Amino acid sequence: MILFPAIDLKNGQCVRLEQGDMARATVFNLDPAAQAKSFAAQGFQYLHVVDLDGAFAGKPMNAQAVESMLKVVSMPVQLGGGIRDLATVEAWLSKGIARVIIGTAAVRDPALVKEAAKSFPGRVAVGLDARDGKVAVEGWAESSQVTALEIAQRFEDAGVAAIIFTDIARDGLLKGINWDATIALAEAISIPVIASGGLASIDDVRTMLSPRAKKLEGAIAGRALYDGRLDPAEALALIGAARAA
């Protein structure tokens, strides 16, 4: 199980949104590279980064901030936001990103995901962000008519490394992850699933480590880490103890 600390980028700064609304952004750090270094120092082993401006623009918008993070941490980084074609996938992977996350294009252009996953085995994940069960696209600005499960099933044999499933209604609100929907998705497909959206406390970490969540690859923590509701040392100690057992 991996606990991924999240860095969301807007205008080159490290922010958190509420329910994906760009107008409800809180700036937590003006220096994303310093934030990445801080997470590394706390003992995290894998970083989750989202280019929020890129998700809306459909192309990378915070490349400088991402590259500055890659220079200062050695842990693997997964990146989403504005990755809509094979050239962008290739460019990020060549710059040192461990895994790219394709979101909107997974709904609009499934062939891209399949081609990317085939070209770069183990390095392409799919981000599925659901509002009332239906997947949202374009930086969550638009809702589609398909469910997360329907899209996930399209990629069952494509070699996708992971599905990152976010319940938009909970994202950034510290209400706890929607474990029922996330675990149901994980049990319905063979691709590993990462829980995202609303991680609130150490209780969510305990749920992530419970037998019913055994099919998950891990969970993403954002606001709870930034505002101190989740103690990194306590969370990582719990995960370490679970691994040892």
Give the proportion of residues in helices. 25-40%
Number of strands: 12
Q: Roughly how many Å is the radius of gyration? A: 16 Å
Q: Helical segment tally?
A: 11
Describe the structure.
With 245 residues, the protein is α/β, with parallel strands linked by helices. It is built from eleven helices and twelve strands. Helices cover 38% and strands 29% of the residues. An eight-stranded parallel beta barrel has the order 1-4-5-6-7-10-11-12, surrounded by seven helices. The longest helix has 13 residues, at 232-244. The mean pLDDT is 94.
List the helices and strands and how they pair.
Layout: E1 2-10, E2 13-18, E3 21-29, H1 32-42, E4 47-51, H2 52-57, H3 63-72, E5 77-80, H4 86-95, E6 99-102, H5 104-108, H6 110-119, E7 124-131, E8 134-137, E9 142-147, H7 148-154, E10 162-167, H8 179-188, E11 193-196, H9 202-208, E12 216-221, H10 223-226, H11 232-244
Parallel strand pairs: 1-4, 1-12, 4-5, 5-6, 6-7, 7-10, 10-11, 11-12
Antiparallel strand pairs: 1-2, 2-3, 7-8, 8-9
Helix pairs in contact: 1-3
What characteristics describe this protein?
245 residues, alpha/beta, eight-stranded parallel beta barrel, globular
Concise account of the structure shown:
The protein has 245 residues and is of the alpha/beta class.
